[in-house]
């Protein structure tokens, strides 16, 4: 069997392990269910193409163990379903049909939505288990295991996910090692394929070219698999969980800063990071809504993160990140999102480079990350990537110098990524005046009504000292107009610009 042979002859130990585990899952499923009771959900995508070949190999090996193999596979015996949609790429359709022809697959084409289609399929057939090419990191993988019953509200069947623990790199290592055909879109820079309405080539594979047409490198050259979905256009959402949506472009973005540490609460350590983060966020136009200091306790973290993530655009959390028993921040974040902590092989590799000699046991506990919601933000200046779980950024900094570096990388990354306009620079001006509160109060509130897009803040450093007025917004010209309007309300020279 050519797939089994290709993997057998490969030197890639990691791929061999992934392959053997997936084959084990497939063989278990084929022992648990009869061939009429299983189905394969195939859509021509890279993950389902991997699964197609694993199923071919798994079926062959399963038969061989039962000593009824004739040595080859002329047709594919597993019922294969394809939910065809008018919004699928023609290349995906063409590849799916081609693959069916090449490998002797009898395709069941379903032209209904997933749920209704599956209901009809299960009514008409004795299907009890469906193989899927779902992988950890896919939004739909959250909470799934290799064998996971379908969700409540869905027709009852077992979802079998043999490649759940495969990374993007593993997928390409397999397809290239086995030299199997895959959909042509992957050679044109597409890295994960949805519908024609929500998928474009991955900008990270763009090649600078003098000709007018933008060119892209093939999908297997994407070095950071975490960004495979960067070519998926975000669906419009105006929730606070989706930073960067158009609806928020002209508003002040809201941040929350959370410190985790018993040592801060007991007064043993002075928290410098919170202060520094507030300054940094404010300097780029964010409005910090709240800072909090929490105990090293999973529930305290999860409750606070859950609250803040729903009211703020971005939550920054630090402290409690590491291998100690008190390092509960990531577990708290996972709990806040209702997902488990799961080993993340890419992150583990970074940590292994960093602390290899000090690792104890088989698994590095620090490499457990909230499953399905974590994006690693890589930067060449960072030895370990930053962790972003939806709108929660987990900072590993333990002092202000480390924070400085992480912040610098974060601002660069979020500008580069394009998908999260996290750190768009805002304009601001500060004015100082010796007018009294009573004198400025009314004109200032009128100014607020005239310039609703400008944030107006006031404070004084001492009871008798001058008042400082801050104006913040996205546009320098708007701020200047607001300052002019404010000046016109008073005698000349009562406001002094501060640096
Ligand atoms: C065979 C099959 C079984 C599925 N079973 C479930 C399920 O049990 N629970 C669920 O929430 N979604 C289920 N889905 C839907 C997927 O989780 C997901 O919504 C779907 O792949 C569409 O992804 P998209 O929104 O990115 O296009 C199933 C899809 C397929 C094809
Ligand atoms: N239209 C569909 N018909 C049949 N199965 C589907 C369909 N869409 C998704 N699936 C199943 O869900 C799995 C996960 O889909 P997903 O889009 O994440 O992966 P993929 O399409 O195989 O690869 P890619 O991530 O490159 O798009 C697929 O491997 C397949 O098993
Ligand atoms: Mg797909």
TrEMBL record:
GO molecular-function terms, A-Z: ATP binding; FMN adenylyltransferase activity
Annotated Pfam families: FLAD1_M, MoCF_biosynth, PAPS_reduct
UniProt source species: Brassica campestris
Residues annotated as domain MoaB/Mog: 256-389
Transmembrane stretches, start-end: none
Record-linked SUPFAM superfamilies: Adenine nucleotide alpha hydrolases-like, Molybdenum cofactor biosynthesis proteins
Lineage: Eukaryota, Viridiplantae, Streptophyta, Embryophyta, Tracheophyta
PANTHER family registered for this protein in UniProt: FAD SYNTHETASE-RELATED FMN ADENYLYLTRANSFERASE, MOAB_MOG DOMAIN-CONTAINING PROTEIN
The protein, known as: FAD pyrophosphorylase
């Amino acid at each position: 069997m050519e797939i089994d042979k290709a993997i057998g002859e490969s030197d890639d130990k990691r791929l061999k392990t992934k392959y053997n585990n997936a084959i084990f899952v497939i063989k278990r499923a084929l022992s648990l269910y009869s061939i009429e009771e299983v189905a394969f959900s195939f859509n021509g995508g890279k993950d389902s193409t991997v699964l197609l070949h694993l199923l071919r190999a798994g079926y062959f090996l399963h038969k061989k163990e039962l000593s009824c193999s004739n040595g080859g596979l002329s047709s594919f015996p597993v019922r294969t379903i394809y939910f065809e949609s008018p919004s699928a790429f023609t290349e995906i359709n063409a590849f799916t049909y081609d693959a069916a022809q090449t490998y002797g697959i009898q395709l069941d084409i379903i032209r209904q939505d997933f749920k209704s289609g599956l209901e009809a399929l299960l009514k008409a057939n004795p299907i009890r288990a469906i193989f899927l090419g779902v992988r950890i990191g896919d939004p739909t993988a959250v909470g799934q295991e290799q064998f996971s019953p379908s969700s409540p509200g869905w027709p009852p069947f077992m979802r079998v996910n043999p490649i759940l623990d495969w990374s993007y790199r593993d997928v390409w290592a397999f397809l290239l090692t086995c030299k199997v055909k895959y959909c042509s879109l992957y050679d044109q820079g597409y890295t994960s394929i949805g519908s024609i309405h929500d998928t474009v080539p991955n900008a990270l594979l763009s090649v600078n070219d003098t000709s007018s047409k933008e060119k892209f490198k093939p999908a297997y050259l994407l070095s950071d698999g975490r960004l495979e979905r960067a070519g998926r256009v975000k669906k419009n959402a105006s929730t606070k969980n989706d930073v960067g949506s158009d609806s928020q472009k002209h508003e002040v973005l809201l941040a929350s800063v959370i410190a985790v540490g018993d040592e801060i609460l007991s007064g043993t350590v002075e928290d410098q990071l919170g202060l520094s983060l507030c300054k940094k966020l404010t300097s780029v136009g964010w409005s910090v809504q709240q800072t909090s200091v929490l105990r090293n306790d999973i529930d305290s973290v999860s409750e606070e993160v859950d609250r803040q993530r729903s009211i703020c655009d971005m939550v920054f959390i630090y402290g409690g990140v590491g291998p100690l028993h008190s390092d509960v921040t990531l577990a708290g974040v996972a709990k806040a999102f209702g997902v488990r902590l799961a080993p993340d092989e890419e992150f583990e590799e970074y940590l292994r480079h960093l602390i290899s000699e000090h690792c104890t046991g088989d698994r590095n506990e620090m490499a457990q990350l909230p499953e399905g919601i974590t994006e690693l933000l890589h930067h060449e200046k960072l030895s370990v990537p930053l962790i972003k779980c939806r709108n929660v950024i987990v900072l590993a900094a333990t002092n202000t110098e480390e924070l400085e570096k992480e912040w610098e990388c974060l601002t660069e990354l979020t500008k580069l990524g394009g998908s999260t306009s996290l750190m768009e620079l805002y304009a601001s001006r500060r004015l100082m005046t010796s007018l009294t509160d009573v004198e400025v109060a009314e004109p200032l509130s009128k100014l607020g009504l005239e310039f609703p897009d400008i944030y107006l803040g006031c404070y004084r450093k001492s009871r008798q000292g001058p008042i400082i007025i801050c104006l913040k917004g996205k546009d320098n010209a708007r701020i200047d107009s607001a300052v002019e309007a404010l000046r016109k309300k008073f005698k000349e020279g009562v406001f002094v610009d501060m640096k």
